[in-house]
Amino acid sequence: MGNNDIKNGAIQAGFSYLLWGLLPIYWKLLGHVDSIEILANRIFWSFVFMAILLYLTNKQASVSAVVKGFRTHPKQMYALACASVLITINWFVYIWAVNSGQMIEASLGYYMNPLVSVLLGVIVLKEKLSLAQYVSFILAFTGVLIISFSYGHFPWIALTLAISFGIYGLAKKLIKVEAAIGLTLETMVVTPIAAVYLGFLLMEGTSAFLHNGIGTNLLLAAAGPATALPLLLFAGGAQKIPLSMLGFLQYIAPTLTLILGVFVYEEHFSGIQLLAFMFIWSALTIYSLSKTKLFTSIGLRVRKH
Fold this sequence. Notes:
Blueprint lengths: L2 H27 L5 H22 L3 H13 L1 H26 L3 H22 L6 H21 L4 H20 L3 H26 L9 H8 L1 H16 L4 H7 L2 H13 L6 H19 L3 H12 L1
Helix pairs in contact: 1-10, 1-12, 2-4, 2-8, 2-10, 3-4, 4-7, 4-8, 5-7, 5-12, 5-13, 6-13
């Protein structure tokens, strides 16, 4: 793979994380809408947008082939259903956290996500960890304990986001379909529920959609493209760049969310919370470096001596 491919891949992946990091601004603009209704619109319009996109790119045959494959590989169908439920939970908790002034804890969840993914790999896939990765887990666990004491309660938002997205990633490994088709099928599973809920709100006259002005209507409908575009950029970029580079880029999103929470939306950020985040950041730095060639070569030298 050439330097231009790597450069383009880094731009695509980096831009996807930039969009994800700025997405809280979008949900804040919809702060006057109930989080469940935002979620329902996000699911419904994501499916509509992806269905149109697949039609325009002539991928109906590919979707049909994947669906037919579920008959001979039912585990993939179960994994898809599991992924659909998990991403729905993840989306709801994130939207609710942002609009209830819990953006800092939400960012913590996505800082923790790579470590949760590795832990799931050890438990479920029986993968082996290096010494550096064990150290990163100890540091991260210490950070979680500190932040739990600083909040005065268990950081359930952060852990729900990290665990739901971690298991979602594990389920996606079992499905093995391209990102566009995967998102379409995942949203298709829960779209009927979202559509019934939105229809009920419309009949009751309590729906924000069509009742709160054209600005709200456009924001709710555009939640589909706002969800799909970063994912498609990420899928395109991830195929062109090394995993170690992707590992560093993924911290763009939670860092931006943290900055927004502290400096733009003025959420309280104490010295104890900063200490906890320093443990998390140290863990992530060690974990990320453990995936690079430099760190591997150092480890090999140590073992030789």
